């Protein structure tokens, strides 16, 4: 570990982690932590030694000029702290962990992060991830919260993880927390596989909304809702240009609406109304929300310069959509 500054004293700290790579479809998770860091002006206080965890032929360093002087930035994972209080409001500090999924020595990597969590008095670790799924871009982004702790699952209304299969650093870090007795939760956003290229501000917004509910903290959204609207409008326009893609999106919408009918119940409505009440007075740089807006259900988008979404997958022998083709940016299966 390279310590850049002294470790600060924190108030009721929660550690929020995200890693670029396999667990970060559409860059949704890493963008969520970057948003927190930017909105609350995070102060970097530590970084992991890049030599210990990264293959520089896979994640190459970059050279840049600083007043004519050439400097090198090495791929690594950095830790910063943000203070969320102010204006007489109760404060809860966040420790942000953001970097690239390590190439090697994952157990040592997790132990270093847990060492800092212990030293800082972290009360909860939340790891953000995003994955590719059969979800339409026109509907609210599904976000699942999972944990390996049965008690935590019960008290925080989370799913207890039953996933079996290949995993990434998100899954390894959560299990390391469980073995160390540190409460840990993973939040997973599903990104449409047919428009997987980053960024995906709608999925980022959904993760932040779910995080806000989880830790009971009002998060300034800045321009993210407008970016999410622009993203969806851009995908709408691209899909409209290809009848096969439009037809495929419609089939996903029908499947999603049928599956979500039981969710149009008291609990889901109450959760959304509580978010509306928290935001109805507005916030500096944020959004005076309307019900249904901050969850991404009405988000549309105008970004241009995107490539055309790939054609929908071929039908399988049963007439249903075949599994999505693998891509370099593809995230893991839902570890829930």
What fraction of residues sit in β-strands? 15-25%
The 3D shape can be described as globular
Task: Count the beta strands.
Answer: 11
Residue windows where pLDDT falls under 50 for at least 5 positions: 283-331
Distance between the termini: 31 Å
Mean model confidence by pLDDT: 80
Structural class: alpha/beta
Instruction: State the helical fraction.
Output: 25-40%
The total count of helices amounts to 9
Order of helices and strands: EEHEHEEEEHEEHEHEHHHH
Give me the Rg, rounded.
20 Å
Order of strands in the sheet with the most strands?
Answer: 1-3-6-7-2-8-11-9-10
Give a quick account of the main beta sheet: strands, pairing sense, barrel closure.
9 strands, mixed
Question: How would you characterize this protein structure?
Answer:
The protein has 336 residues and is α/β, with parallel strands linked by helices. Helix content is 34%, strand content 19%. The chain has 9 helices and 11 strands. It has helices spanning 28-39, 50-53, 106-120, 150-155, 169-180, 201-215, 224-240, 243-260, 266-279, and strands at residues 2-3, 14-20, 43-47, 62-66, 69-73, 77-82, 94-100, 124-133, 143-147, 159-160, 184-192. The strands form 2 sheets. Strands 1-3-6-7-2-8-11-9-10 form a 9-stranded mixed beta sheet, with helices on both faces. A two-stranded antiparallel ribbon has the order 4-5. The protein is globular. It starts with a strand and ends in a 57-residue tail after the last helix. 39% of the residues are buried.
Brief summary:
This protein has 336 residues and is of the alpha/beta class. The chain is 34% helix and 19% strand. It is built from nine helices and eleven strands.
